[in-house]
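Predict structure. Chain length: 742.
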Amino acid sequence: MAEKERITIALAGNPNCGKTTLFNSLTGATAHVGNWPGVTVDKKEGTYKKLSEPIHIIDLPGIYSLSPYTPEEVVSRNYILDEKPNCVINVVDATNLERNLYLTTQLLEIDIPVVVALNMADIVRKNGDKIDAKGLQEKLGVPVVEISALRSEGLKELMDAAYDACHHYRKGTTILEDKELAHLISDVTIAFRGKGVQSPLFHAIKLVELDEIETKMHPELISMVDEYKESHKDDIFADDFEALVADARYKYIAKNYATHYQKNEKSEKNDDGEQVTRSDKIDKVLTHRIWALPIFVLIMFLVFHLTFSEDLFFLNRWFHVEFNHEIFINICTGMGYEGEPMAGLPSPGVFLQNWMGFLTGSLIDWFRSFMPEGQWYTSLVCDGLLTGLDAVLSFVPQVMVLFLFIAILEDSGYMSRVAFILDRAFRKFGLSGRAFIPMLSGFGCSVPAIMATRTLEDKRERNRVIRLMTCFSCGAKAPIWALIAGIGALAGFAGDIFVFSIYLGGIAAAIIFALFMKLFSKDQYVSPFVMELPAYHAPQARNVGAYLWEKFKHYMIKAATIIAAATIVIWFLSNFNWNLTLGLVDIEQSILADLGRVFAYFYYPLGWAQGVDGWKYTVSTITGLIAKEQVVDTMAVLGLNEETVLLTGAQAYSFAVYNLFTIPCFAAIGAAFGEQKGKEFWLTMLWWFVMSYAVAALVFGVGALYGVAIWAGILLTLAIIGLVVAAGIIVTRRNKKVAQAA
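Prediction complete.
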């Protein structure tokens, strides 16, 4: 007996319409993420289990139309036409009905069941507005269901309607009613039907628009459109049929669909008579021309303060608040009471990191208690594998706290505003705000961030963004910052400032690097940036939890595979000499020490490679090429921790800057190779290395100069700032000339 085919439902809609929130609500823990074949666009799949049979759910990329302008649009279009899901749920932002229904009119032209989900219906009601869902359903000719994906309202009714639609054939229909245009579409449709093409109406309209994909597939039918063009001239659009069809769609939507949305007449209006929403009022402050950047800086500082501070809200620094209660101190510091008062309260991130360190340390002590002392395998397990993993795992809670705040900012809609805010700065220096979107994901992981650059239209801008990607500290580097923030030279308040400066300084460095790239480039093109800002809303625990689970799973898989294997190699090299003497040797006579001393000479100008332990920092940065978590892991195996790291402030900053900007992990290198290849790839590798080395040397040099003569350090700092300002003025003037010429 043949196996019954599972029912597949695809979710399609505009970006920020709540489609992914709906997907998460429907699929829950069954969701998983991959990539569509041949492209790097996310492919999200899951299962809905609340009907009589499991339903396979596909979350298509957010798109505005089915025209082939972006990889997302091509993926969504090809999936619906070629894979033929049983039904398409078109997720529509009910608060922006007119704009969202443009995609709906295109989906309705395909021979496939469609159900329209009016999302954010709760916000519509809260605003005092009304939607006539039944009237809209009659006009569209397909089921229309009001839902709130965020609050999980109306989901059962939606899936019942979609399940029912899956069992009924639906023929495509169009709203294009111009007589002459309709006649041409009808003739082309008949031609497609004669060729046995499925969904002939959709293909006919796309051919009339002279769609790139359609004209390549059916060049023999273009003559029909050309003949019509010769006899038809529009006063506004001339022979641009794509614009003509788009205009016809919007006019029909405004006349027949938008009327089913009634706005609250008593609501506040702006000067143009448009309704002022709560998000609009918030944006007056958060996207303000002057205050937007300072507010962003303040928010980011609070995030890092709550993650890395050992003196929460500076209670001890400002108010000299100390705690002496033994039990209280034990709870806050992971059973670390030593008879001394505790200065201030630890932040949530430090509190969790203390306890994770206590648990992993206790685990190592437990293993030592029953393993024979002095044996090589005891050292391998305790001093190598467990100590290395402890160095990574003890920082996991702190990293998760950081990701928690980032997830909250993203899910609330604020991070979209950050891209809008930074577009003002980026555009002046050769990068659009669109470039910031993949860079933003670089705070999580450089691999998907590099792959996401494929959405950038201009190749030169894409190459620049890939080279600037290391400026955005990925999650794997967070343990490095956490470790350095706790060393003697930076502990306490300076530790907060250090971590804050690394993240914010990375963004500033990206702008400066882009400025100099632009200065020495003949390229004057900056791709346009149009982004729809989602409405502000309370972050959904399910979305934030799913985000954190993905990050946690990623860390654990790395810790159990790549990092564990690398730790064993580092342990072997640090415990055996070149004669491979059976039995452990002093680390200073090990193979690793000899190799480290050779490479340390090369890194000597950066400061941190100097001194007795300089080779240890050198080896740690080199092993970071495997995975950036390996930096802290290697340091732990070599006996470097918050107590034993003796770097000065200048050396610590140089070490951090080098690891921030330098060549990232093997996975990121592979992603860059996949996107660039050839000459551009090798230029990227050279840029990552040279830039990180040069900036780290500059940071150490300036920092050391301040220690010798403050006035000389100030003069050099002012000279550097002056150079950057001069470059900015030149590039800005050049951009103005280009804009005026255009």
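Summary: The longest strand covers residues 7-13.
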